[in-house]
Amino acid sequence: ELENLSDAPFSGDEENGGSEEHKTEINGNWIPATSITEAKINAKAKRRLRKNSSRDSGRGDSVSDNGDTLKIGVVVPTSPKGKLLDRRSRSGKGRGLPKKGGAGGKGVWGTPGQVYDVEEVDIKDPNYDDDQENCVYETVVLPLDERTFEKTLTPIIQEYFEHGDTNEVSEMLKDLNLGEMKYSVPVLAVSLALEGKASHREMTSKLISDLCGTVVSKTDVEKSFDRLLKELPELVLDSPKAPQV
């Protein structure tokens, strides 16, 4: 009974010397056990190679299915992706030079030394306006109001007390749009001179004399001194000797 058991440790063939190999039936074909074992070992080795290649993909080399080592960045020429990314001439006549002399890329101004001509206006353009050809653009300076007048002219007059150049003050005042505040220029100059030294008062007298006829008129000067006489009680608070001066 023990000899007829199918799960015995050794079969009759193995007891005779073990010269014959085990055979397994797969899909109706009898395949030796040794070939199946070798196939499993090969499959396991391929899986290990793929795993290692995925780990080393950022290190510079990769391993293909055939076991060949490939450098990163090298595309197999036979793959369709490699053909699309290939910038070489498909006709074989290209010289490998950049297109348009290096001036054909995105965001490129053009080749070095290229000079662009002045673009001519198209008369047939629906947005063309004949009046634009004869337009003269000027810088408009808004007139000074009472708030900005004192803030703007005070540093100019104080700097004049240091350099004493009336021409410079005249040029700076011409750049400003004084408007109706012209008569206030002598008023502000005299008010600052009353708080300063005797030399400042002499310089203020010379300044008003040089500005009269260029920046301010005689009427503006008369109007400014009339206002100074009316504001004399307020000037005495800051300068007690203002009436005598």
Automatic annotation (TrEMBL):
Residues 1-111 are annotated as: Disordered. Residues 99-110 have a biased composition (Gly residues). The keyword Nucleotide-binding does not apply. GO terms for cellular component: cytosol; nucleus. It is found in: Cytoplasm; Nucleus. The keyword Lipid biosynthesis does not apply. One of its GO terms (molecular function) is RNA binding. InterPro entries: ARM-type_fold, Initiation_fac_eIF4g_MI, PDCD4. Pfam families: MA3. GO terms for biological process: negative regulation of DNA-templated transcription. Residues 43-52 have a biased composition (Basic residues). Residues 148-245 form the MI domain. Its main location: cytoplasm. Keywords: Cytoplasm, Nucleus, Repeat, RNA-binding. Belongs to the PDCD4 family. This is Programmed cell death protein 4. It comes from Oreotrochilus melanogaster.
